[in-house]
Amino acid sequence: MKTADTKICLIIGDPVNHSLSPLMHNVAYKSVGLEEQFVYLAASVPVVKMKSVIESVLTLGIRGLTCTVPHKVAVIPFLDEIDETARKIGAVNTVVNTNGILKGFNTDWLGVITPLREETKLSKKKVLVLGAGGASRAVVYGLIKEGADVTITNRTWEKAKKLASEFGCRAIKKVDENSVKDMDIIINTTSVGMHPHENMSPLSCGGIAKKHIVMDIVYSPHETLFLQNAKKSGAKIIHGIEMLLHQGTAQFELYTGVKAPIELMRKTLQNTLLL
């Protein structure tokens, strides 16, 4: 039962109606006995309304603010503190309100690095990152932190070049079969493969083989065309649900101070996406 003391956590985005975060977090609250203390909600908010959102967070005493596209950069000027990792990435996806002090964090990088760590040591691994947008910043940060050899490619060459320059890695204009073969890990950080482009893949050339680990951050559909093609080639695939899960478990712990029930949260997401 919710009470006057129940703390609100809120995800904002534009749009946000597709988000599975409220489901994942609320199931987790119930599992660990926090259903009376926390509730997780969602609101579709235009990015130009960020100032009003922050005023509401402070006025209403909202405990946690989850920022998804396009709010991860726009929220930064309104925060009191920014975690060093979030500062280096240049984006915030998690805001914790502690007695009116708003501190920003970034857990997106853990969403990619955690499942990759479970498969291999990342140090010195050659990793190809497809995309140079907001999500790729967190991915590249995490990979560099783990000592990986990162190469970025993007439809817009200047963006890839700029991101590579910021993080001290390499950018290539065009990906061909030989450059793919040279990699150990390939990660899609673009929205290609997501509705309404389910029949598209961010990688048009061949080269994926059994030795590769291939990850997609797109989680709906559960198995994108990119991952389907990689599986057919014998590669180890990591579904986008893993990024959603692990960034969310880190966020859960920041909001509540309680260890997240990871397996339950994974099962909840899987059951929803595979219906």
Comma- or semicolon-separated keywords:
275 residues, single chain, Rossmann fold, six-stranded mixed sheet, six-stranded parallel sheet, 12 strands
| Strand line-up across the major sheet | 2-1-3-5-6-4
Structural class: alpha/beta
Find the count of extended strands (DSSP E, 2+ residues): 12
Q: Can you write the helix and strand succession as a string?
A: EHEHEEHEEHEHEHEHEEHEHH
Q: Name the CATH homologous superfamily of the largest domain.
A: Leucine Dehydrogenase, chain A, domain 1
CATH architecture of the largest domain: 3-Layer(aba) Sandwich
Distance between the termini: 29 Å
Oligomer: single chain
* Low-pLDDT residue spans: none
Major beta sheet, specifics?
6 strands, mixed
Note the total helix count.
Answer: 10
Shape: globular
Average of per-residue pLDDT values: 95
CATH topology of the largest domain: Rossmann fold
What would you say this structure looks like, in words?
The protein has 275 residues and is an alpha/beta fold. The chain folds into two domains: 7-106 and 243-273, Leucine Dehydrogenase, chain A, domain 1 (Rossmann fold); 109-239, NAD(P)-binding Rossmann-like Domain (Rossmann fold, 3-Layer(aba) Sandwich). The chain has helices at 21-31, 50-60, 84-89, 108-117, 134-145, 157-167, 177-181, 225-232, 241-256, 262-273; strands spanning 7-13, 38-44, 64-67, 81-82, 94-98, 101-105, 126-130, 149-153, 170-171, 185-188, 213-216, 236-238. The chain has a six-stranded mixed beta sheet with strand order 2-1-3-5-6-4. A six-stranded parallel beta sheet has the order 9-8-7-10-11-12, sandwiched between helices. β1 (7-13), α1 (21-31) and β2 (38-44) form a beta-alpha-beta unit. The radius of gyration is 19 Å and the shape is globular. The two termini are 29 Å apart. The model has no long low-confidence stretch (mean pLDDT 95).
